[in-house]
C-alpha cells in the first residue's frame, strides 16, 4: 500500500476519514490490491515464521480478503503459486517456500526448525465482521471495471467482456443488414411483377386498338372481290376512261 498507509503522508486519507470509514477504505484497498496482483504467476507473502504465521482468529484482511482473492475464491481468478518468506529470521531472508496450492512448510522446518518465539500479541477481531468483510471484498471485486489502475488479469477480463459486446453488436448489425437486404429484394420482386403485369395489359390494349383491327375482322368492311369485272357484267377495261371521253368530246 506504500504511502497510503502512512498516516502523516499527504496521500494518506486516514486524517480525513472517521474510524469506520477508514476501516472500510482499508478493506476495499486490500481487495483491489489483491485483485491487482493476482495477474501475476507467483505471489510472495511476508509473515512471522511458523507456527504463528497469521492471526489465530483468521479474520485479518489478508486471511478474509486478500488470500481468497489470490486463490480465486473471490473474483474467479487465481494465481499459480503462493510463497512465504520470513525476513525477521536471520539467514532466512532469501528462503522461499510454497504454501499454495501445495503446502511445503516442511521445507522450512527442515532448514530452520519450529522457532518458538515469545508469545505474539494479536489484535482482537470480532467474528461478527467476517461475513461483512467477505461481502465487501466481493463488492469491490465485482466493480473492478470502475477502478482505474487495475490491469493484468482484470484488464484481460474487461477486454474479454468488451470484445463479447462488440461481437454481439456486430452480429446484430449483420442481422439487420440481412433483413434490410431481404426487404429490398422483396420490394424489387414486387415492382418487377407489377411492371410485367402492366406490360401485359399494354400489349393487350394495343392489340385491341382500332388501328390494329384487320379488314377481315371488321363487320363493316366489305371484301371487294379480286376481279376486274363489275356487277353489271361489263369489263372495266372495255369502258372508256374520263380522259378519252374528253378527247372524243373536243374532237367532235
TrEMBL record:
Q: Which domain of life is it from?
A: Eukaryota
- Feature: compositional bias, Basic and acidic residues: 229-238
Q: Where is this region: Disordered?
A: 150-240
Q: Basic residues bias located where?
A: 163-181
Protein name, entry field = Uncharacterized protein
Q: Which organism is it from?
A: Paracoccidioides lutzii (strain ATCC MYA-826 / Pb01) (Paracoccidioides brasiliensis)
